[in-house]
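Most newcomers find our protein records easier to grasp once they have seen one. Sequence and backbone structure share a record, each on its own labelled line. To make this concrete, we reproduce a full record directly below:
***
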Amino acid sequence: MNKQTLLKILSSGAGSAALVLRIPVGVILAAHGAQKLFGWFGGYGLAGTGQWMASIGLEPGYLMAFLAGSAEFFGGLALIAGLLTRPAALVSAFTMLVAIFTVHFNNGLFMSNNGYEFGLALFAATLALTIQGGGQLSMDNWLSKKLAK
C-alpha cells in the first residue's frame, strides 16, 4: 500500500465529535464480540455461538462465529482507539448488515420482538465512521500527521 492511499484511509476532516460516536459504539461492539469469542458478559463463546450460527444456516458455524466475533471485538477496540477507524468501521458495518438480514429482519423493526432496530443503529453509526474517519482525537489523526511529514 502506498503512502497516499494510507493517508487517505487515516486522515479525517471530522472534528472531535467523532470521538463521541467512536467510544460508545466501540464499547458496544467489543462487548458483543467478547460474548461470541470468549463467552464473557453472559455469551456462549465460540462453540456455542458457532452451533447457533450453524443452526440458522450460517455455515460453517464456528468460522462464522469467529469472523463475526473478531469483527466486533477487534473492530470495537480499534474504534475506541481511533486506529484504522475506516477499515474497522467498514467491517463492523458489514457485520451489522449480515446480522440484520440473517437474524432480525423477519422480526420487524423493534427490539422487543428481536427486530433490527439496534443493528440498524449500529450500522448507521459504523457507516458514518467509515465515511468521516476517526476525527481529530484519534490515533489515525496522529499517524496521518506523522506520515505527512
Summary: The two ends are 18 Å apart (CA to CA). The CA atoms of residues 2 and 12 lie 18 Å apart. The chain has a mean pLDDT of 96. DSSP finds seven helices and no strands in the chain.
